[in-house]
Design goal:
mainly alpha
């Protein structure tokens, strides 16, 4: 950490360096927040389109239900040490 008995210029330099590190972390956090917001907007728009298709053509709902049921199975990773 910071040693109060050291050179004041060195302490200021260390504090400046730490401040830059924290600012970079905050910037990355802001980028992640923006990406999540964009993803949520996309998912909501997609859900709206799918919902409108299901209203117009009800048999599509069966296909959609099947896809929604199988996707988690297909996308899950096999667990290590688990045998069937």
């Amino acid at each position: 950490m910071l040693d109060s008995s050291g050179d004041p210029r060195e302490r200021v330099a260390r504090m400046t360096e730490m401040t830059q590190v924290f600012l970079e972390k905050a910037k990355r956090h802001q980028n992640v927040h923006e990406n999540v917001r964009q993803t949520i907007t996309f998912v909501q728009a997609t859900a709206s389109v799918v919902g409108n298709m299901l209203v117009v053509y009800p048999p599509v709902s069966l296909g959609c239900a099947g896809i929604c049921a199988i996707l988690p199975v297909c996308s899950s990773r096999p667990r290590r040490g688990v045998t069937t």
